[in-house]
Write a structure and sequence with these properties.
Layout lengths: L1 H53 L6 H26 L5 H15 L2 H33 L4 H9 L6 H13 L4 H12 L2 H16 L3 H25 L1 H24 L1 H8 L2 H25 L4
Helix pairs in contact: 1-2, 1-4, 2-3, 4-5, 4-9, 5-6, 6-7, 7-8, 8-9, 10-11, 10-12
Amino acid sequence: MEELLNSLDMTGAAAACAGLSITMATLVIVDFISFASARYRERYLQEAAIELDDVLLQIPANRILDLSLAVSAVASFMVLLLLVGVSDEWNWGKAAFWMSVTAAVAFPAPRFYLKFLGKQRIKKFNEQLEEALTSMSSSLKAGFSITQAIEAVASENKSPISVEFRLLLQEIRLGVPLEKSLDNMCQRLGSVDMELTATAIITARQTGGELTTILDRLASVIRERTRINNKLSAMTAQGRLQAFIIGAMPFVLLFVMNYVAEDTMKNFYNSLTGIVSIIAVVILVLCGFLAIRKITNIDI
């Protein structure tokens, strides 16, 4: 009897220790997840704020986070509806897996769209810069100062170059030196052509060079670079189209197979081999698409 009591006491103590260990481990894991999510949220908001500033959108960064969560939720719900309509044998584990994968893929979509808008804005700025340099050179030849030449470009009301030159003009009027204002503009835009223009203007002011000639030459260089870029874009258009076609072919085939061999595809979706195969195909297609895009993206 005494041995039984001792055994029960040992079992109770072991159970208490195991419960305490599990509780402490759970608290540590929850605290780590909370810390990691807070750090990720802070970094996400900072990066989103920078991207919003790049495209001059007056939207709070936390709205982009809310939009990302909403896009993830809608995409997961659409996948849930698709699984309900396709699969006769319902499996919550499989549904949770595909919903999680879809949410993870859809979450960065708003950020990708902001980056796309930023690239389009820089592209349009570079296209307008050649005409702006010609206008500044004409203003300087007419006897205007460099500030008045910048004001002439800012008053043309051509977005986005007029907006950026307007910000440059505001900094100059607030007492910021021209060199610092041009440097701030280059950091804000990230345009190679604008960095070349700013370096040429600053060097001409420091060495006493003829700024009108330099601006005309810069306009000619930018015009030639634009022509070459357009030619390269036309030459690599077929490669970019092939990237989209090759990337879409496996998914089109999967969609067709759902109607041609419906029973076979149901067994395929409900097996571990099928799920692993789909994940591997998605990863390989993405790698191939990125490789083709890298080959066809030629920098001058």
